[in-house]
Design brief:
With 232 residues, this protein is of the alpha+beta class. The chain contains seven helices and four strands. Strand 2 and strand 3 form a beta hairpin.
């Protein structure tokens, strides 16, 4: 057990040169751990190919940087940290993505110091905790009222101020008409409502009742725009 968690560089403390065999062992271990982290971190989540590749290769990059600076942790973290932030220059990362990035960097740092056993143990424990939290759904909001933006097209002969009041009061805890626009040479009205749905999973039933009231004209239900910019 002690041999498993012994650093591969501890036997070569008298020499300053990095052995090719040790380098390849640490690099291979970093690639395996990186792939494992990428699979766990992207399980049942939306992710891009670039993010998957970043997680898969970042431990190897960090490992090599630490080895090349001869174990100078301060200089190695500074360089590897600059590498990890490159992804977030163009696309902002979520809190989970940033956490996964630092997890991959931590594993690469341990590998760069030569402790393959500790790196594997660190990866397995934190990945198991992450997977456990994902399965439990810790931190997710359930049964929260859904704020939506509703766009409805109606013919000009309907009174847009009251035509949907009955339906909106049944399915929405609050609603407000925020925009009215004429279209098709004034023969149609396009209405925009800000609504908060009472229950999740009744959107289709809600839209079906709206369609029967507006003559099956165009209806759109989307996530509420926080900037309150209406495209109609």
């Amino acid at each position: 057990m002690n041999t498993l968690f012994q650093g591969v560089f501890e036997e070569a403390t008298e020499t300053t040169s990095l052995q090719v065999g040790d380098f390849l062992i640490c690099l291979l271990a970093a690639l395996v751990i990186g792939f494992f982290l990428a699979v766990i971190s992207t399980y049942k989540t939306n992710f891009s190919q670039s993010f998957f590749l970043t997680l898969a290769l970042l431990p190897a990059v960090t490992c090599v940087v630490i080895m090349m600076v001869n174990g100078n942790v301060g200089a190695g973290i500074a360089v590897a940290g600059a590498f990890s932030l490159v992804r977030f220059r163009s696309a902002p990362g979520s809190a989970k993505e940033i956490c996964a990035i630092f997890l991959a960097m931590g594993a690469g740092l341990i590998l760069g110091m030569g402790y393959i056993g500790y790196a594997a143990l660190f990866t397995i424990i934190l990945s198991a905790v992450m997977f456990f939290y994902q399965m439990l759904g810790v931190g997710t909001k359930k049964n929260v009222p859904q704020e939506k933006t509703l766009h409805v097209t109606i013919p000009e002969n309907l009174d847009y101020e009251t035509v949907f009041d009955e339906i909106l009061e049944e399915y929405a805890s609050s609603h407000e008409l925020t925009n009215v626009k004429t279209t098709n040479m004034g023969s149609l009205f396009k209405l925009t409502f800000s609504i908060t749905l009472k229950e999740i999973g009744r959107e289709k039933e809600f839209l079906d009742k709206l369609r029967t009231r507006n003559g099956n004209l165009e209806i759109s239900l989307s996530k509420r725009d926080k900037t309150l910019q209406t495209e109609l």
